[in-house]
Automatic annotation (TrEMBL):
Family as reported in the entry's similarity comment: Belongs to the binding-protein-dependent transport system permease family. OppBC subfamily.
Localisation per UniProt entry: Cell inner membrane; Cell membrane
UniProt keyword list: Cell inner membrane, Cell membrane, Membrane, Peptide transport, Protein transport, Transmembrane, Transmembrane helix, Transport
Organism per entry: Stappia sediminis
Protein name: Oligopeptide transport system permease protein OppC
Biological processes, Gene Ontology terms: peptide transport; protein transport; transmembrane transport
Length: 378
């Protein structure tokens, strides 16, 4: 008898608890295949950008002088036809003559000679090359004018090719993703957080408060964006925090106006008036009724703001106010790739793939969130 009563109590409690609007929105979002796939793609890109450079054998600023603008390839460098000319060039710079050369798999051996005594430090010329390592010299002749040198052929992989300075493009693309995603997402979230709260408060309170708050927005609109960024550069210097503050502190103005317009419409709805009649304070009405019902428009604007922020970052970097060498971003890589598209198309293709994949994913996620948070579907 007691167990039956307990079961009834549990069923009654679950029936009273019910489901929240957020639970329904989550289920509708997870049922959207395009949105779920886009979330997987976005997470994969983020993981690759933040973990990939740690696993890469190349640093993002490491320069390989012998590998400038080499094409993307799954096969290792150097190619077989590159080894012999490079050996001869290196030893020519060391002012020795190659009498006999044997190139084997993974190393080479050369008999060298010179009209004067050979300095054992000649191996430094070989080690400075990007193609060889672990050079050693031995088997000197009696007059030390001939000797034998050997070195290992250094195997390198450039899956995305290299740029115009001989830096690994894969590592730089992943590092650029860190910069673009960090600036784009964080600046967007700051702009949305400020704009939603500011616009909702302005639209809901109305009257003189609304008039004063909107005039402040108009004043900020009148300030040139570049002038505002230059002021931040003077005070804070060039760093990621600057980009984050500069973009986020300006882009919230559009969001504030959008949310204000939605709030002016929502505050006349019956459910808001009912909440006011029940004695809910202004903060409670904004938190539970106004702001949640503006999220559909907010999400749509967010999907447009992220690529806008990424492009703004690229524009500022071009002017010398943003990301500076050797650090990079997707926008900077695409700008550089577009100038070399005829002879080195891979410099444009790979950063563009990452950028477009991210933007498509954000758009599909935005559409899914818009449908999930649409009050008409609840």
């Amino acid at each position: 008898m007691t167990s039956t009563t307990d079961e009834r109590d549990l069923k009654a409690a679950s029936a009273v608890r019910g489901r929240s609007l957020w639970d329904d929105a989550r289920d509708r979002l997870l049922a959207n295949k395009a949105a779920v796939t886009s979330m997987v793609v976005l997470v994969a890109v983020a993981i690759a950008c933040f973990i990939g450079p740690l696993l890469s054998p190349h640093d993002y600023d490491e320069v390989y002088r012998e590998y400038v603008k080499v094409p993307a390839s799954l096969e290792p460098y150097p190619r077989a036809d590159q080894v012999t000319p490079e050996i001869e060039s290196v030893l020519r710079r060391a002012r020795v003559t190659v009498d006999e050369l044997t190139v084997e798999s993974g190393n080479f051996t050369a008999r060298i000679s010179s009209p004067r005594k050979i300095d054992p430090r000649v191996t430094r010329y070989i080690d400075r090359s990007d193609l060889f390592e672990n050079a050693e010299i031995y088997d000197f002749s009696a007059d030390e004018k001939s000797a034998t040198v050997r070195a290992d052929v250094k195997t390198l992989y450039f899956f995305f090719g290299t740029d115009s300075n001989g830096r690994d493009l894969m590592t730089r693309t992943l590092i650029a993703g860190r910069v673009s995603l960090t600036i784009g997402l964080l600046a967007t979230f700051v702009a949305i957080a400020i704009g939603v709260v500011y616009g909702a408060v302005s639209g809901y309170l109305g009257g003189r408060v609304d008039l004063l708050m909107m005039r402040i927005v108009d004043i900020l609109y009148s300030l040139p964006f570049i002038f505002f960024v230059i002021l931040l550069v003077v005070f804070f210097g060039r760093n990621f925090v600057l980009m984050f503050i500069a973009v986020g502190a300006v882009e919230w103005l559009d969001m504030a106006r959008i949310v204000r317009g939605q709030t002016l419409s929502l505050k006349r709805q019956e459910f808001v008036q009912a909440a006011e009649a029940l004695g809910v304070d202004n903060a409670g009405v904004l938190k539970r009724h106004i702001i949640p019902n503006t999220l559909g428009q907010v999400v749509i604007y967010m999907t447009l703001l992220v690529p806008k922020v990424i492009l703004l970052e690229s524009f500022l970097s071009f002017l010398g106010l943003g990301v500076q060498e050797p650090m990079t971003s997707w926008g900077v890589l695409i700008s550089e790739g577009s100038r070399n598209v005829q002879g080195a198309a891979w410099m444009l293709i790979f950063p563009s793939i990452f950028l477009t994949s991210t933007l498509f994913a954000l758009n599909f996620i935005g559409d899914g969130l818009r449908d999930a948070l649409d009050p008409k579907d609840r």
